[in-house]
Backbone:
């Protein structure tokens, strides 16, 4: 790969690296297996399986009335769903995205340092998939959760997006999926580590967050670095695709959520009420605005919104202010 690297006019740009990866990456530093704690039953008296903030439906009167054991089961369902989603996302989407940098698929010069960091990030994501899967398997077995074969709606919709584009556009769409994913995940994990979760789950989320905070900075830097190098066609494509990808990342997975709610015996009317509320356009728009703050800031910093068309596109979607 070395001989294909361009000369380094990139000293002017942000470093786009993962500093101290050898001593900080969780794949290098984690030493204990992610096994559920021996005092799990005791922990579940006060600790959660998953983040209640990500489950706004938990305050529905029928669920509150059903009591803590139903709430814990719904949290377990959501945790397994999130971890299964993460496992696929890391392997099949984020790592596919960094391949576009490592193997010069974007048609613009990528410095060696950026490629090295991309290879490190690729390794990180493989490990995240491993520990996510290890915990998902244990919790799924504990509760007999068996509706895990269908990929999350977000994954299906993103893969459809790739299938729908021309071969010439694929690399850009892959890159943007990684950019969006890597700039929103740290905020999701940050919310998780502030709560009393089951100890093994909390330790795993902390490890993941430490890596993702570095990945988020890396992808923000890389986007800022590449944006001026893209030609007009690439920029137009990127604007349209970014809008669509952001929309997909904050959609709710109605079919899965109905299955989860039905697993604790909730009435079909309650299922309908909860899922309909989550699909309201305003609720979706607010999720994008709040969840993608880092992504939107990175676009702003890179000069993406200096193009009037891009600004209008995102204003019309309600993702940024007029
Ligand atoms: Fe990750
Ligand atoms: Fe990552």
Residues:
């Amino acid at each position: 790969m070395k001989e294909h690297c361009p000369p380094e006019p990139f000293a002017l740009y942000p470093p786009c690296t993962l500093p101290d990866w050898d001593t900080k990456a969780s794949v290098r530093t984690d030493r204990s297996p992610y096994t559920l704690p021996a005092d799990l039953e005791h922990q579940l008296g006060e600790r959660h399986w998953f983040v209640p903030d990500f489950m706004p439906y938990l305050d529905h009167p029928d669920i509150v009335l059903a009591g803590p054991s139903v709430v814990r089961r719904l949290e377990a369902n959501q945790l397994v769903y999130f971890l299964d989603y993460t496992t696929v996302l890391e392997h099949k989407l984020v790592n596919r995205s960094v391949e576009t940098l490592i193997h010069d698929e974007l048609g613009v010069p990528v410095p060696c340092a950026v490629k090295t960091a991309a290879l490190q990030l690729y390794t990180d994501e493989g490990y995240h998939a491993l520990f996510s899967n290890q915990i998902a398997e244990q919790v799924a077995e504990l509760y007999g959760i068996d509706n895990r074969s269908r990929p999350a709606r977000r994954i299906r919709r993103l893969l459809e997006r790739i299938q729908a584009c021309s071969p010439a556009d694929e690399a850009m769409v892959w890159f943007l999926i990684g950019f969006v994913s890597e700039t929103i995940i740290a905020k999701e994990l940050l919310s998780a580590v502030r709560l009393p979760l089951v100890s093994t789950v909390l330790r795993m989320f902390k490890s993941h967050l430490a890596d993702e905070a570095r990945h988020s900075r890396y992808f923000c830097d890389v986007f800022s670095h590449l944006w001026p190098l893209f030609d007009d066609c690439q920029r137009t494509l990127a604007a349209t695709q970014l809008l669509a990808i952001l929309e997909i990342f904050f959609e709710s997975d109605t079919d899965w959520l109905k299955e989860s709610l039905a697993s604790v015996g909730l009435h079909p009317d309650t299922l309908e009420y909860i899922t309909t509320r989550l699909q309201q356009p305003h609720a979706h728009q607010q999720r994008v605005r709040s969840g993608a703050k880092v992504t939107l800031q990175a676009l702003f910093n890179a000069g993406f919104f200096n193009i009037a068309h891009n600004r209008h596109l995102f204003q019309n979607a309600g993702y940024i202010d007029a």
The chain has a mean pLDDT of 94.
